[in-house]
Amino acid sequence: MVGAKHLRVIIDGALPGFLNMAIDEVLLDGRGTRYAYTLRLYGWARPTVSLGYAQPWRQGYEPEIAAREGIDLVRRRTGGRAVLHADEMTYSISGPADRGPFEGGVQSTYKIVAAGLAAGLRRLGVPVELVRSHGRQPRQEPGACFATRALYELTADGRKLLGSAQRRQRGRALQHGSLLLGEPDARQWRVLGPTGSAAARHSVGLAALL
To answer: In sequence order, what DSSP letters do the residues of the chain get, joined into one string?
Structure first.
């Protein structure tokens, strides 16, 4: 278990996308910190698309729509598909990769963190469920994260509420994820390409559930 004296909690306001990703990268690096783990909660100053670290720039992102809708673009250190960060709360948790919540590998961490997030959401009265198998997904081109559901992500009423991604390097790990607050704006979500509309339909915001 993680003792309170070893956990740092950072609550940031809405920051520019490049700054959010830079802070998470510093937390993943972890040099110079006296805290074992850091939990960070933050928002986004402008709608921003983040691409997974290995995702091609032109995959799952429409620059013309981004320019028209005023949507920024960043690269994140974790993997996965493109995510539109707009009306959401983002969390990140970082620390040593060989103990605590990160011990046991990537899927084990997903399960542990998801269980904690689900417990908190249920206390708010949200009928949240953990995805316990990959199941049968609609055939989609690679693109939007919220168009599909991955193992140990969170859904409610059959729609995706929270998606996460993780990165491990040099004995450190960071997992972050997006909790949707409002209903997805279908016009903005078209920035994610052919899968953007599907992502909006298959997602749900916290406000609707409450």
So the answer is: ---GGGEEEEEEEEE-HHHHHHHHHHHHH-TT---SEEEEEEEESS-EEEE-TTS-TTTT--HHHHHHHT-EEEE-SS-SSBEEESSEEEEEEEEETTSGGGTT-HHHHHHHHHHHHHHHHHHTT--EEE--S---PPP--S-BGGGS--TT-EEETTEEEEEEEEEEETTEEEEEEEEE-S---HHHHGGGGGGHHHHHHTB--HHHH-
With pLDDT > 70 as the criterion, what percentage of the chain qualifies?
A: 92
**Strand arrangement of the beta sheet that strand 7-15 belongs to:** 7-15, 37-44, 88-96, 172-180, 159-169, 154-156, 128-130
**pLDDT tens digits along 22-59:** 999 999 999 888 888 999 999 999 999 999 988 888 77
Q: Which residue's structure tokens are 């250190």? A: 77
Give the pLDDT score at 145: 75
In 10 A of CB 102, how many CB atoms? 25
CA 164 from chain centre, in angstroms, equals 4
Strand order in the sheet with 72-75: 72-75, 48-51, 83-85
| Residues with a known catalytic role | 145
